[in-house]
Design goal:
single chain, Neuraminidase, 24 strands, four-stranded antiparallel β-sheet
């Protein structure tokens, strides 16, 4: 893996951590290359490389009370039980140069059914079986629909359709389970998610009104609703979650105050803020928030200090 290449997509605040206390049980893994450890790249491991950022796990998912961690550097997926103990490790496909950016996991009968992993080196989506065998490879480097320039995040719906955010082409590509391009939407680097009904949710900036709208559309592109979010002046918004009741979670930078001052907010179905808290950018991480039911989890890490400390996923009980 090329550490410098892997760090390039991490500019512009891809990684954040919440500046607030965490409570309750969580998950953690030590740093290293051994069993049940996560890899890292920093000035200690690569003193002769000019790194834009230190590197470690870029993504995690909490599913059914257990946690999956994308070990970007070592090329593995780690599975942790509800009590935090390691359950399994799945090796990702061996490639000459891989840049594992994000992943999604689908579940059937309470068990992992498939993994969908983004490789930023080849600009591909890999669909893997529950045990890690490659079942499909989609995309590749290119500017045409169905190709990618800078893969960033992925979601997968219940039918197996893939939603891939591409920072390079500034689109979200929607692919069928067979990899056919169903549609693409213009995307403003502002996050996206699927709601509980499987609708695609993203943000659209209204220049005249000076607000971001939450846009919700069906798979076919039919409008479900568009709601302005009353989060005030901001930049670098990132949509994380839209709930069945229409509540929305978004993070963003404030235009005033300390450099890179950031917040996370929950907006009601009417777009008005009903809760929020400050957050502070750390070093590197891509998908640093996830939900398991109503419980919010966040990634906590300092890859610049590794191997000191651990990579942790902790509950964040904000309302």
């Amino acid at each position: 893996m090329n550490p410098l290449r892997a760090s390039l997509p991490l500019l512009f605040g891809m990684a954040l951590a919440l500046a607030a206390p965490c409570f309750g049980a969580g998950f953690s893994l030590p740093y290293g290359a051994g069993e049940h450890q996560v890899g890292f790249v920093n000035e200690t491991t690569a003193p002769d490389q000019e790194l834009l950022n230190p590197l470690g796990p870029l993504s995690f998912r909490v599913v059914g009370g257990t946690c999956w961690v994308l070990d970007t550097v070592n090329g593995r997926l780690h599975h942790l039980a509800a009590d935090g103990k390691p359950m399994a490790t799945i090796a990702l496909p061996a490639r000459e140069s891989a840049d594992w950016q994000d992943f999604a996991v689908t579940v059937a009968d309470g068990r992992p059914a498939a993994f969908y992993v983004l490789d930023g080196a080849e600009q591909q989506v890999l669909r893997l079986s529950a045990t890690g065998e490659v079942q499909g490879t989609f995309g590749g480097l290119g500017e045409e629909p169905g190709k990618f320039v800078q893969v960033f995040r992925i979601e997968v719906d219940a039918a197996g359709n893939m939603y891939v955010a591409d920072r390079g082409r500034q689109v979200v590509s929607v692919l069928s389970p067979a990899g056919k391009v169903l549609r693409e939407i213009d995307w403003e680097w502002s996050g996206f998610c699927l709601d509980p009904s499987g609708n695609l949710c993203y943000l659209r900036w209204d220049e005249d009104a000076g607000v971001n709208h939450l846009v919700v559309e069906t798979l076919a592109g039919k409008s479900v609703r568009s709601v302005p979010l009353a989060i005030g002046p901001h930049f670098n918004p990132d949509l994380w979650r839209v709930e069945a009741n229409g509540e929305t979670v978004v993070s963003f930078n404030l235009p005033e105050g300390a450099p890179n001052q950031m917040r996370i907010a929950r907006c009601g179905a009417d777009g008005k803020v009903i809760a929020g808290c400050p957050l502070t950018p750390p070093k590197v991480m891509n998908r640093f928030l996830d939900w398991d039911g109503a419980t919010c989890y966040l990634g906590v890490a300092d890859y610049g200090e590794a191997p000191k400390g651990t990579f942790a996923v902790e509950p964040f009980p904000w309302k």
